[in-house]
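ingest -> fold -> write
write: protein_1
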Amino acid sequence: MKDFIIPWNDADMGTPARTGAAVTLTIDGADVTVPEGTSVMRAAYEAGITVPKLCATDSVEAFGSCRLCVVEIEGRRGTPASCTTPVTEGMVVHTQSSKVQKIRKGVMELYISDHPLDCLTCSANGDCELQDMAGAVGLRDVRYEYGVNHFDPTGDGALSLADAKRRADDTDLPGNFRYMEKDESNPYFTYDPSKCIVCSRCVRACEEVQGTFALTIEGRGFESRVSAGTPQDDFLTSDCVSCGACVQACPTATLQEKSVAELGTPTRSVVTTCAYCGVGCSFKAELNGDQLVRMTPYKNGKANRGHSCVKGRFAYGYMEHPDRILNPMIREDINDPWREVSWDEALGFTAKRMRGIQEKYGRRSLGVITSSRCTNEETYLVQKLARGVFMNNNTDTCARVCHSPTGYGLGQTFGTSAGTQDFDSVEHTDVVIVIGANPTDGHPVFASRLKKRLRQGAKLIVIDPRRIDLVKSPHIKAAHHLPLRPGTNVAVVTALAHVIVTEGLADEAYIRERCDWDEYLAYSDFVSDERHSPEAVEELTGVPAEELRRAARTFAGEKNGAIYYGLGVTEHSQGSTTVMGIANLAMLTGNVGREGVGVNPLRGQNNVQGSCDMGSFPHELPGYRHVKNADVREIFEKAWGVTIDPEPGLRIPNMLDAAVEGTFKGLYCQGEDILQSDPDTKHVAAGLAAMECVVVHDLFLNETANYAHVFLPGSSFLEKDGTFTNAERRINMVRKVMAPKAGYADWEVTQLLAQAMGADWNYTHPREIMAEIAATTPSFAGVTYEKINELGSVQWPCNDAAPEGTPMMHIDGFVRGKGRLMITEYVATDEKTGPRFPLLLTTGRILSQYNVGAQTRRTENSTWHGEDRLEIHPHDAEVRGVKEGDFVKLASRSGETALRATLTDRVSPGVVYTTFHHPDTQANVITTDFSDWATNCPEYKVTAVQVSPSNGPTDWQEEYAEQAAQSRRILPAAE
């Protein structure tokens, strides 16, 4: 396969790289120097010598089972496997002697004797390592006749899968008992046992790379085959999470993408970046012409290191879904059906309405919402549209409802609002706190890297109301699980600090050197107060005092401690306080500024970090500089040729409030679905309904579009150039794989709208937008497309002081100077349980779905999660007469909805949990408008509710579905 736009080597070197002292050896007469511990196979590849292999691949440790990679080593007997033999100084290796050639050819004959030779019609033809190795060893004839085999070459008497499973019980069944039918249960790939060579690469990938341990080798000797569980299991019903690691590792067509079987072997590829979560995985988009065949994780991607999850690997089919809107549409009133129009008419209609609103209500009556799914360049243009065309600062982004407390809390304590490390850092940690995050579901590729480190001996502390998979799963177990009551994060984090300070576990030398000592003394007095002790807060938090003390000692007692957190921290009324408390813990224990430590927010959407970096908040210009500062405004005023309003604009909740009040009338919403994702759905609907022009710029008619007057078709990540910035501040290239299906990339649409409003914007490529970002934003000053292409990716800050970027922050000192330990007083949320609403609802995500589900619901991922369900403890269910799978009504002070119940002890009594991926549930009709004191981030994670039996959807759900159906009417195109 020819790779287009791949300037970096991604050859399979056979075994993993090693680090150590240099060792020099001779291979086939060539001297090669490699690190100590390197395998002979990899050393040969380094010297440009290819050793045949089947069971070896550099993503997993060497196994040495296929015997195809044998070599001769002078002074040693026999022919050792090169994959499992480490190099030694002065070693002399022969890889092509007549002896090893004969052995390899004989081994290859044995493989071929039990393999169907249907190469011409096999879906792996041209992409099969078995086929390649047969050629590499010079095999042209097979001496063995067909005999006992697993593939039944005659086509007669082959057992069905069901019969094969009955073999042990009924040996009189006719047919080839070793043959098993293809397992096609997984929607994305097939398992064909007849083509399996039992190399164990899939099993080892599942164990070492993914960490799920779903696959095993069943049977012995000639009876060995890969198994996805018990004899009653298939790949769909097993523990397999469909990450694709096994498919990636398979050297034959045993495990094969269905898309390849249907569309053929891809002939070209483009490296790009996944558009799902904030891990920011690099992929090779592999194509035939402009038809996407598969997405393969790119091994040189520095965030994912060649791994993937089910979403990034397989769930890209939404871009071809018939629901996708490819033509602009307008309507005079939200009760009218949509009318397809030309781009010129749609943009002209929008510009006229927006100008009319400003003339009538003033320049601050319009605003924008930027997208955390769009590129940095596109987001930059949207906030520029607000400030340079609408002439106000009414710009906000989805971080308002997820990670805005991260920006505030880390900004106050460290001086910068982003994670301190790269993902590689987890490989050096000794103890990890995971608080308010569920990495196996929300950030699965990072979770796999974390689990690998845990299997190597690192300790884990989980702080979460639910028993997430990290608490206990195959081969890992948390040292401590603190199942706190929702809403008590601050009390728990402060109690951990209490133990560290009062038991003398703080790193005083680090604090004296790196933090403000006077502030520490004040903080020490505060946190040492007995009211913050684990015993004092036990009744409040529900966490046993002694377990909390042990967890604090574990974290403070190890050399390298890292903290990873998610929305279970930020989406609270004290989200900012908890972030500051987490930063306090890291500084108290000296865990900022080196490998294996740090404070790391796990960002939810692919470019939520970038959307914040680009100035999407109403009080900050790009680079987190306050709009009130005249010197900062001057930079952009010179670049844009406008005067920038010094007054901070409206946040999303403020926009909605102002709309209801009648002062905010127009909204341009790019790539966000606030009606489904934001809290208190009824209030969001009221705000949107009160506006006179709502412009939705997206791939699908989302829920927000129910109240829109203009729909502008969006482009998927495969249809544009640009950059994303992931959770580790890594700026990755997004490369155009195919032409935009609607005619324009999103940045072009925003530019066309600005031009229709009278702006003189003339960008011809996103690299020009990045050049403007670099010229105006110090942390991006050294960022260019050329540099990203050369290095693979860049982490900001990237400037003269760090020309190749900054993988690790705060090494010699904090950005703000001295680290600031903040007082973290616990203040109870105003949302209280009581007789009417005695349970606490918390929300989260599930592995197979993403955010509001607009993309993943339009793929086969719905096979695993076709509806939102309410998790409820069996005790709470029993007292309410609720059984597994029953419809229940979930009611709060804000609203009510109905969904099916799942009984589980993952949640504690008194706590219920659901996801928010499906609009027919609309879980956010339940959540309140309480929010973080500093940032207005909604308190999704604490809602007082009642659960009761139900016969089906509520009246509100039925009314909502009817209104949504009416809103999605599209008039037939004119003849």
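write: protein_2
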Amino acid sequence: MTSPSPGPSTPEAGEGGAEVRPPAAGAWELPSAADIEKYELMLGGGAAERALALVEKRFALEVEDQYQRRLDAEHRRRLDMINVRFRIVGVLVGSSGFAGCLWIAKDFVDRGATTQAAGLLGGMAAALSAIFLGTRSRTPR
């Protein structure tokens, strides 16, 4: 049977007195050749391949993360452009509606129906103030 392998913090006496450095959590650098040899002795064969596989996996995850960030930035840019277009259309529709109401009120005044023109202008003023006040309360800060 195989003998139990020693723990990573207790090197065998024949290996020398140097401790094996644990890999840095955020660095993901390749270990030195001396560290690989000590890992091979402590953990058995294949330590170098496992270390390389971990570094390659971390690199692949970082590349995928950068790609996803680029896609998210492009998506946010498109959403911003759509928001600008909707705002422009809203201003155009609102101003044309405002101009239409003024035109109808002027027509009422020209025909001598001043009470209807006053009602139309009062309703338009109330509607516009409700739109502006309602939009301000919904706008995220």
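write: annotation protein_2
The radius of gyration is 37 Å.
The CA atoms of residues 106 and 135 lie 28 Å apart.
pipeline exit 0
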